[in-house]
Amino acid sequence: MPGTKSRTKAEKVVLAYSGGLDTSVILPWLKETYGYDVIAFAAELGQGDELQGIKKKALATGAIKCVVKDLRAEFVRDYIWPMLKSGAIYENEYLLGTSIARPLIAKYQVDVANAEGATAVAHGATGKGHDQVRFELTYMALDPSLRIIAPWKDRNFDLTSREAAVDYAKKHKIPIEQSKKKIYSRDRNIWHISHEGADLEDPWNEPKDEMLTISKPVSKTPARAQYVEIGFREGVPVRLNGKAISGVKLIETLNRIGGKHGVGQSDLVENRLVGMKSRGVYETPGGTILVTAHKALETITLDRETMHYKQHIALKYAEMVYYGQWFSRLRKALDAFVDATQRPVSGTVRLKLYKGRCTLAGVKSPKSLYRPDLASFTMGAEYDPTDANGFIRLFGLPMKVAAIVDGNKKAKKRQRKK
Q: Per the domain annotation, does 17 fall within a domain?
């Protein structure tokens, strides 16, 4: 079991550190239990003001060093955009906000470990969840020589609940936002925020309005709809309302706009990789707008066979992101396929935001395969309807032959009865 043997005090471990409840107590626990020299690594992924004072907090609770890196641009460019282009959505609803961030955090943990001469990496994911898989698969893929320390799976780790972690934090005077009355497990980045635990563990309980963080309750959204236009180039969103914009700024802006209208709220019971079901409430306002826009643009730019095959790929891609297999050969191969499908996916999509809904209001593309003259109910020279006669006869021939065979059997039965 990782982390159960005694270590030399000089040994360094790089901890994925968010400053939240779990990693806030794990940092001093690693030091006092095994004598590790703990280097805290925090990734700026667009989680608002959560990283304010994080270096001071990490050092005050026992870290020998705290490394903070702003990874927002890389996160959007190399992780979110490929996922958006793939069409990946887990179980029809989850836009994979937490899942897509973990490989990037773990990648930089490995980089810091190599730069600092650390022999181990650690994370605060529990033994029941899926983040443990996402972190550890990335460590294994990028540097299998590093020891993996997961305190929640360490037999010496006696903080078996979030309530126990709160007590530990109070005892050690570790500042935390959580209390036993306010104990949601949250994960936030530029793509979304998730809420788990507490009253949400009972799927009969309706999510409370006050739980929402980056979007308004639908009951408190404006009475007037708002329209936005997203411009795409080869599957990547590059313009907002006609103006060029960076990926980070685009998502931040759409989060504000979509959040104001209650867009992107999802209450989902999902199937975890470890075999159980869990419930999460997600707020993904900007992501919902972009996913809706991208889907709409593909409807007029992708041919039928490519679109249908890509739907199979999207399902597998979503599973791989959810399962933590980002740094796998298959994911890279799928990206090559997806990139090829996205070459014609350029154009503009207009969306209507109103009372929690994001609906298509218009789509256009210079690469559009949609032809009004073909789609029209008016018959013209461009389409000879009599061509359909032979097509239907050939297309339906197997069904016709089966019907004849079945019909002959029935006829023979009737003959015997006579």
A: yes
